[in-house]
Write a structure and sequence with these properties.
It is built from three helices and 18 strands. The protein is mostly beta strands.
Length: 366
């Protein structure tokens, strides 16, 4: 946290020397209480609502400091730091990392922009804006670690019509998020979006995450033969929104890991593709400019080919809340997170629901 606030001071000083730039900043966090938990969920993977029963307290989940600068008429840049509650740190301190660091070449050719650096991955801009409550929770593909929200690479965005109702994004990147690259394999992203009628928009997304081949467990050769282990992700988003009145959105995805599922334990082993899927439905209603109700339901299945696993397979995740907009830059958001877990087959085991009431705060400080 000391590094974060020291950086704020340094960048503010820099801004006095470069007045053409603009700083923005925001923070959100909660007071939370883990009202119910099952004792065994601590050993489950990819939880949306983890933590120990009765744990409660205040936390800052995210803080952003962003500097945008128009270098010239054709070039713009962004540098953003993020402070976050890294649960894997042994000393339980907040962590800081570079979230964005890119330059955009506007109009590299008419109607198309080229971006180089650490930048947002394509599937999140449209769905996050439609959901509108990142301060409460991530969108489903971010929450379940299906696609990293950032990657280091080069992208091309453009529109197919003068009004910008139809367009695309293509991106070629490391595939390692904001971490350093450690291998020769890359991730290839593609998305098209469309706004065929007023207030409605949709997006189709695909990416190929290239990975090293793995050893074939049935091979008797030395060295053993290898098989593919690439990951392919497909997603569809649809949303309808009337500004300051109401909104509804639907997003679904499937992800396939080649030869990612070993189905048999005896030789010859059966190597199959691992298929993951999920979908989310969310909506909001404005009672007034100052009061908004919202809700969301997610379904997540990490392995669509098998329900006979050791611990809770598919999950349901729900969010309900009220946004009190006390100021255009400050909100208090009471909300509740609920996650349920699929029981094991044949009545072998069921799991208690995880319930966490929270009071979330969100404000812009620059």
């Amino acid at each position: 946290m000391k590094l974060f606030f020291t950086t704020i001071i340094m960048l503010v000083l820099v801004s006095t020397a470069f007045p053409q730039g603009k700083f923005t900043g925001s923070i959100f966090g909660d007071y939370f209480y883990n009202a119910t938990r099952d004792a065994e969920i601590a050993t489950m993977k990819n939880l949306a609502n983890g933590g120990a029963k009765d744990l409660n307290g205040f936390t800052i989940r995210r803080a952003y400091l962003t500097y945008d600068n128009d270098i010239s008429y054709s070039f713009t840049s962004r540098f953003r730091l993020e402070m976050y509650d890294r649960e894997n740190l042994t000393d339980n301190r907040l962590g800081v990392f570079v979230k964005d660091a890119y330059v955009k070449w506007k109009g590299v050719f008419k109607g198309h922009d080229l971006t180089i650096g650490i930048q947002p991955a394509p599937p999140f801009e449209i769905s996050e804006k439609a959901w509108g409550y990142r301060q409460v929770e991530k969108t489903i593909m971010d929450l379940r670690s299906i696609v990293s929200t950032r990657d280091f690479g080069i992208s091309l965005t453009g529109k197919f019509d003068e009004d910008g109702n139809y367009g695309y994004t293509l991106m070629f990147a490391n595939g390692s998020g904001v971490r350093l690259e450690t291998n020769k394999f890359k991730r290839y992203y593609a998305q098209v979006y469309l706004k065929p009628i007023k207030n409605f928009h949709a997006a189709l997304y695909f990416d190929l995450n290239g990975r090293a081949k793995i050893n074939d467990p049935n091979s008797t050769l030395k060295p053993p033969a290898t098989i593919d282990n690439n990951i392919m992700t497909y997603a569809l988003f649809m949303g309808y929104a009337v500004k300051d009145k109401c909104s509804i959105g639907l997003e679904g995805y499937t992800q396939t890991t080649e030869n990612g599922l070993r189905k048999e334990t005896i030789v010859p082993l059966s190597m199959n593709d691992l298929n993951t899927m999920g979908y989310t439905i969310f909506g909001s209603y404005n009672f007034s400019k100052e009061l908004v109700a919202f809700g969301r339901f997610d379904y997540f299945d990490p392995n669509t080919d098998s329900d006979d696993i050791s611990k809770g397979d598919s999950r349901n995740f729900m969010i309900f809340g009220i946004d009190y907009k006390l100021d255009k830059n400050f909100s208090i958001i009471p909300n509740i997170l609920i996650e349920t877990y699929e029981s094991l087959p044949n009545g072998r085991r069921s799991y208690d629901t995880s319930i966490t009431p929270r009071i979330t705060f969100f404000y812009n400080f620059l």
